Amino acid sequence: MVCTANAAHSAKGLPPAPEAMQSDVVLNYYLGVTVNGQDRARVEPMQQRDGHYWMQADTLRSLGLQVPASAAGPVAVDQLAGVTVDYDGASQMLHLTVPGDWLPMQYVGATNPIAPVQARSSFGALFNYDVYYSDPANGGLRYMSALTEQRLFDGFGMISNTGVYTRYLGSGTESGGARDSYMRYDTYWRYNDQRNMFSYQLGDYVSGSLNWSNSVRLGGLRFSRDFSVRPDLVTYPMLNFSGDAAVPSAVDLFINGAKASSTELQPGPFTLSNVPYINGAGQATVVTTDALGRRVTTSVPFYVSNTLLAPGLSDFDLSVGKLRRDYGVRNFSYGTTAASGIYRYGVNPYLTLAAHGEIATGLKLIGAGADIGVGVLGTLSLAASNSRSNSSPDANGRQYLAGYSYYSGRFGLALQRVQRVGDYDDLSTLGTMSRLARRSDQATATINLNSLGSVGTGYFDVHADDGSRTRLLNLSYSRSLWGNSSVYLSVNKELGAKGYSALLQLVIPLDRYGMMSSAVTRDSEHNYTERVSWSRAVPSQGGIGANVSYSGGGQHYQQADMTWRTQIMQLQGGLYGERGNYTRWAGLSGSLVWMDGAVFASNQINDAFVVVSTQGYGNVPVRYENQLMGQTNDRGQLLVPWVTSYTPAKFAIDTLQLPANVRAGDTEKRVAVSQGSGFLLDFSLQTRVSATVTLVDTDGQPLSLGSRATELNSGVSSVVGWDGQAYFEGLQRDNRVKVVTPEGRQCQVAFTLDPKQTQIAQVGPLSCALRALEGSP
């Protein structure tokens, strides 16, 4: 090589050097492509000429490269601004490196972690009851009361009525003239539009309110936003982090030192939103690790406030009706027609605006407010309202609110002042003698001392409309001790008054034997009371619970009761009072459900429920979220009484105990149920009459192995196996089987089955007279 090179150098008139020749040579390649280390898993054509790498403009655009809009045909890749090219001949790869902002944004984590599921409801009715009997001490008036709820539901929504019936026991003289009565509480129809998150309610209801307005009871129409119908939706601004990965990397997210997530990233910008639900201040650490093991750590403080609305999200409540008076005293007492409305809108992650208005005969009120996220320093709330009423001549009034809150894992602080000027009224005081306080201040703080416990304090200062002032100061301390035991101390003081009250309590869990607690209380009159109690909670699946307590001091108060919970009801009974002067009581509560043509008894159902149907098959185990709920009854039904509305839940049946000829379409389903409703969940089970048929020829010998057997009525085919046996499903009472042997002969047999049989029938042996196939030689 050296000699040749020297000869060429000394010779004259020879062709140009090889390097110069290469500039006119065009080399065509088909190469794999990587962009910033990410293998695009595709092979693209490329030319090498004039010392550059050329690729089609459309191909480069599809790879995410920013090519001039006017460019068409081949483009020199290594001439594009910001792009570097590395050709790897050994692996036939072309490695491209581009600016990170050219690559598409990667969003890690869904905004809604739970997939939304359309809630469902079936036609049915529910009756809740809570019966209470009281026999007071000293021969007091005995009575029995029954708090009931009647509920009707379907796709139209839910109709509900609640009330209490009271019956006094004994003669007229003993009852003191008290009369039996029924007191109606609330009657309404409600329909929730899950898709739009709207709620419609007609009848009795409580209007919506803000932290600077008051709710009132109305009878009329309420139209409002209801976020509870979408448990998948996060209503406050979620925490997210953005960055840029130059090469394929792994990114780990730590929240307050605890690992929250780990994700593989491709090159390019990214945003992490797979952050757990948190509230308050904290420290987030993002750690990225590339393919070479290089780690980059970034720590940033954050503050999340669930009082804010996510950007673009709105909340509202519009109520129109008549003010309800004497609730719990009179059945139908409605006064002035009134309307109330609130509206909130998330402008951006740090600002939520609000408006509120009220109107009635003699009252007009309007107000506005805002919740402001102050970076990592907490949340500020501001509001102002103006009212005009007929309570007095020229009765105008104004209300101002200023509040601040900050919460972290170690410290929490909440401050609020409400100031009212003039004759400020709203619907809660309209037509009554009540007046809102002139000013109220409150301040609360908590400090977490880790293993040393936690301290809380609160200060409340209220200036009433009559000029009086009440100031309260509270101090509390709690700490965990050995095991799961704990101690709690609380001291309350009314400033300006003598004395103070205090409570010191020790709680000691005894595992399956219940819980012991002892306490000492002191009132402002320097009286001390000692109390000791033992309790055992009722198991959620049913059983017995109890509670016994004794109080010392001046009264020697005693209490004892027992609870027995079954699958269909709950029974309670006990006594309380001083020694020899006890009040005895008893209670019975539960629910009755009508659905699918049957009545089911259960403990009280406050929300939604499901009736599982296995279409007449009994003793089928049913599981709700992998928890065994029981077995279907003789009609193939089981009530699952406690289901969280709008939340998708998994229901499953165990088919192992079903007869061999029963087939299930689905053994697992996921459904969501509307609020206050029930849903009939059908599992498709079908009885398939099956049989093993033994086929022999006229000499009693099994038909040939591999013969094709077909049941002519259903068209079901089978293959004849050893000993002439063929298996069939989906048979009927009368069946005909045609057999074709590998030797080219055929025959037919008929047989009858019992369609109600639960086992695989054994039929035969059946004699089948073979003959030549039609048309065969």
3D structure, described in words:
With 777 residues, the protein is mostly beta strands. Among the domains are: 2-102, Ubiquitin-like (UB roll); 112-193 and 537-683, Outer membrane usher protein FimD, plug domain (Immunoglobulin-like), CATH 2.60.40; 238-304, Outer membrane usher protein (Immunoglobulin-like); 691-772, PapC, C-terminal domain (Immunoglobulin-like, Sandwich). The chain has four helices and 55 strands. The strands form nine sheets. The protein has a 24-stranded antiparallel barrel. A hairpin with a 6-residue loop joins strand 30 and strand 31. The radius of gyration is 40 Å and the shape is extended. The termini are far apart.
Keywords:
single chain, 777 residues, mainly beta, Ubiquitin-like (UB roll), Immunoglobulin-like, 24-stranded antiparallel β-barrel, six-stranded mixed sheet, 55 strands, 3% helix, extended
- Major sheet details: 24 strands, antiparallel, barrel
Number of helices: 4
What characteristic shape results from the CA principal axes?
extended
CATH architecture of the domain at 112-193 and 537-683: Sandwich
Structural class: mainly beta
CATH topology of the domain at 112-193 and 537-683: Immunoglobulin-like
Gap from first CA to last CA:
85 Å
Radius of gyration (Å): 40 Å
> What is the percentage of strand-forming residues?
over 45%
Tell me how many strands there are. 55
Short description:
With 777 residues, this protein is mainly beta. Among the domains are: 2-102, Roll (Ubiquitin-like (UB roll)); 112-193 and 537-683, Immunoglobulin-like (Sandwich), CATH 2.60.40.2610; 238-304, Immunoglobulin-like, CATH 2.60.40; 691-772, PapC, C-terminal domain (Immunoglobulin-like, Sandwich), CATH 2.60.40.
